[in-house]
């Protein structure tokens, strides 16, 4: 759907009590339109910009929120490409005590993420930025402590360009997680296993096929409450890739995740017999989408 800056400006000027804007798979607008919304929608509780074709002119649109603005509950700009005005973002997060969902883009560093978590320990859903910055020992400890203080966190996504050495900072929040979205994080089987063994309450899991069948075996072993699994291709344009997942990983998940009912599965090999085995293992199974 095409959405223009003019449409966003019209909305912002015409509806002063406007509260929620969620744009999914839209194009035709830029950060100038977002700036108009930030400037004029003084009662906004939700700004969710997801999977859109945005003309990201600059990250300064975040500075357009008035200093008196405190109502935001959901902020998602994960798919914007440019650096953001972090000083404006940090002040905005600190002011909005009701903020429950924060999903930032990959320009936000681990050090900056730590500062955001300190100001918003009440978060329930977090989309991290880049997870590959070099940290000192003190910075690592501060980041780990910040995650540990997020006692309400149940959804985690992002981990752009994730470095395995920093996965341990996530361990304190793993117990309460019900949804892990690693669809942008090329984890291997070992990295996934070390996280999942600490996630007994997981209901939804999105991963790339870089986890391979061995990683899916860990899903079956450690996630007995899992209801939804999505496995995306690490590189959808790569031909003849040696890595990936097969029906063996699918069956391994079903053997331990009896509550499973929704699966999206990009794989190299799948037979009718494998699907029949999964359905037999998972009596609540209702949705299956497969692609190669």
Task: Characterise this structure.
- This protein has 292 residues and is α/β, with parallel strands linked by helices.
- The chain has a domain at 178-292: Alpha-Beta Horseshoe (Leucine-rich repeat, LRR (right-handed beta-alpha superhelix)).
- Helix content is 33%, strand content 18%.
- It has helices at residues 5-14, 31-40, 86-95, 110-119, 137-148, 171-174, 189-196, 212-222, 247-256, 272-281; strands spanning 20-24, 27-30, 46-50, 53-55, 74-76, 101-103, 125-127, 155-157, 179-181, 204-208, 228-232, 262-266, 287-291.
- The strands form 2 sheets. An 11-stranded parallel sheet has the order 1-3-5-6-7-8-9-10-11-12-13, with no helix packed on it. A two-stranded parallel sheet has the order 2-4.
- β6 (101-103), α4 (110-119) and β7 form a beta-alpha-beta unit.
- α1 (5-14) packs parallel to α2 (31-40), α4 (110-119) packs parallel to α5 (137-148) and α9 (247-256) packs parallel to α10 (272-281).
- The longest helix is centred in the middle third of the chain and has 12 residues, at 137-148.
- It is globular.
- The protein starts with a helix and ends with a strand.
- The model has no long low-confidence stretch (mean pLDDT 92).
Could you give a quick summary of the protein structure above?
With 292 residues, the chain is α/β, with parallel strands linked by helices. The chain has helices spanning 5-14, 31-40, 86-95, 110-119, 137-148, 171-174, 189-196, 212-222, 247-256, 272-281; strands at residues 20-24, 27-30, 46-50, 53-55, 74-76, 101-103, 125-127, 155-157, 179-181, 204-208, 228-232, 262-266, 287-291. Helix 10 links the parallel strand 12 (262-266) and strand 13.
């Amino acid at each position: 759907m095409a959405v223009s800056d003019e449409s966003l400006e019209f909305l912002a000027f015409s509806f002063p009590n406007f509260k929620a804007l969620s744009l999914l798979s839209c194009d035709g607008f830029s950060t100038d339109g977002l700036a108009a919304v930030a400037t004029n929608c003084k009662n906004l509780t939700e700004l969710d910009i997801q999977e859109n074709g945005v003309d990201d002119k600059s990250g300064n649109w975040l500075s357009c929120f008035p200093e008196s603005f405190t109502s935001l509950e959901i902020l998602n700009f994960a798919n914007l490409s440019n650096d953001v005005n972090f000083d404006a973002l940090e002040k905005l997060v600190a002011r909005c005590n009701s903020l429950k969902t924060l999903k930032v883009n990959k320009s936000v560093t681990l050090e900056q993420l730590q500062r955001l978590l300190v100001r918003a320990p009440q978060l329930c859903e977090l989309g991290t930025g880049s997870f590959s910055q070099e940290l000192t020992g003190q910075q690592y400890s501060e980041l780990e402590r910040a995650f540990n203080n997020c006692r309400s966190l149940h959804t985690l996504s992002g981990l752009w360009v994730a470095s395995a050495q920093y996965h341990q900072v996530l361990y304190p929040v793993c117990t309460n997680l019900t949804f892990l979205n690693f669809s942008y994080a090329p984890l291997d089987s070992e990295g996934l296993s070390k996280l999942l063994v600490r996630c007994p309450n997981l209901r939804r899991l999105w991963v790339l096929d870089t986890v391979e069948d061995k990683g899916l075996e860990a899903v079956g072993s450690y996630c007995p409450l899992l209801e939804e699994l999505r496995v995306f291709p690490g590189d959808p344009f790569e031909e003849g890739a040696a890595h990936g997942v097969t029906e063996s990983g699918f069956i391994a998940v079903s053997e331990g995740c009896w509550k499973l009912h929704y699966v999206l599965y990009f794989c190299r090999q799948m037979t009718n017999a494998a699907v029949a085995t999964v359905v037999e293992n998972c009596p609540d199974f209702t949705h299956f989408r497969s692609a190669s």
